[in-house]
Amino acid sequence: MNKVAIVSTGQTKFSKDNGDVEKLLFESASNCIQSTNNCDLKDVEGVIVSTNNNSKYLGAILSETMGIRPKISHSIEHLCSSGTNAIISAYAYISSGLSDIMLISGAESATNPGQVLEWDKSRGSLEHPIYWGSMLTKSHKRKFETTEEELAIVSAKNHKQAMDNPFAYSNEPRTISEVMNSKQITEDLRILDCSRSCSGSSSILLASEEKAKALSDQPVWITGIGQKTMSASFTKNILGEIESTRIAADSTYKMAKIEPRNIDVAEVHDAFSVCELMAISELGMTSNEKSGEFVRNLFNTENRMINPRGGLIGAGHPLGATGISQTIEITNQLQGKSDRRQISNAETGLIHNMSAAGTSSSIMVLQN
Amino acid sequence: MKKGVFQICYCKKCNNTIWPPREICHICNSKSDWKKSTNFGKILEFSKKESMYFGLIEIDDGIRILGNITSTSSPKVGQLVRMNVSFNSKPNYSFIVENN
User: Fold this and answer.
1) Whole-angstrom Cα distance, residue A247 to residue A228?
2) pLDDT digit string (tens) for A274-287?
3) Structurally, how many domains does chain B consist of?
């Protein structure tokens, strides 16, 4: 298999404005191409669009607006983890030799109703993610004695870290007290425990080893990939666990030949505060019982190793762009380009992206 | 379900429960059929939105459903509930705590 590198990235600022998905895709893709060392658009052999938007033929539309005539172009939809699924698909094209250079662009509009999975009839009329978010939160509190304050620390930490992310939806600091006193959505969820749908786009250019060094002085390599789908129905989850993450993480670590302790920096899928605690546990960085304490220590010591760009809670959650923005953050960290968010000497980073209450997970490890 | 009756989809050949319902069994590819539910279940987890409790309930054959819970006091995990169903463009499940 050919090695695959990330050679450039581009983003738009996430916002609550109702963005036009075609324009958003063009903006981040243009930023991405302009940041490479002399990329000739004739060499881009594939264009993959990641979105939950209902617009048709977006791979070809983005190709035409960018002036690219690729061999491969199509869209990928996989709810909240569409972005990493698009990157992993592009990885497969390159590693198999079908393509050398691929552009992956994700975008979402703030008003897109794609966060509700209508197929899942086991949710009845309680379709909105706040209902499964409440179940996971209550269960975590019950099983692992997680406190309201520990949950609030996740949000306070991620809002604080998002202040140094110029592309984040939120640049407002939120104290633990503000989070704990924010509007109660359900008995177990406050508004500041929830990630927010927003408009935004992010793009990434992948290249084979042969092409990567001409396009970037600092290629970042995708060295581990793991994916797992358990079901589409949230109600089949075992409460207190994200089994898909645990299984995907195991595959990722084996492929990258690393262990959890080797991770210097990680972007994890904090759709709700409790999801960050569950993710870092299933990724083997701590245990569910100690996850609240783990995050408290990060917050108190200003250690940004988890969700340095602010996660989904701080940066916003434009579904199709989220996994790509997570990957861009880890790429920047491994290139030493994260300014005030920089983790010193970061060599190995992880991206954790999941869908529909963790019924499926996609994980990647990047190394410089 | 439009008549307020919840039926369980199962495989006529291997007896596997198929949830959400489908015409063909995903294990042995045989045709499915319906059987009546007891309409009783137990609370696995619950929370509250405004004045309404809701939760994850397990009914017959391990089928799990999210729905509203009617209870005069805070529900408890493991508590027995009785299910009512209705259908208005989408299914609506509600559960009443027994021996409230």
Assistant:
1) 7
2) 999 999 999 999 99
3) 1
Cβ of A139 under 8 Å from any chain B Cβ? yes
Q: Looking at residue A98, what DSSP letter applies?
A: S
Tokens of A327: 């990957």
Place of tokens 């010193």: A344
Structure tokens at A321: 């762009």
Length of chain A counted residue by residue:
368
Given CB atoms, is A135 within the 8 Å cutoff of chain B? Answer: yes
Q: Give the whole-angstrom CA distance, residue A354 versus residue A360.
A: 6
In what helix (H) or strand (E) does residue B80 lie, and over which residues does it extend? strand B80-87
In a domain, residue B1? The reply is: no
Please name the member of A125, A236, A239 whose beta carbon is closest to the beta carbon of B90: A125
Find which of B66, B69, B85 to mutate to test the A interface (most A CBs within 10 Å of its CB).
B66
CA of B99 vs chain A CAs: smallest distance (Å)? 24
- The residue segments making up the domain with residue B30 are 7-97
Q: What's this model's pTM, rounded to 2 decimal places?
A: 0.96
What is the ipTM, given to two decimal places? 0.94
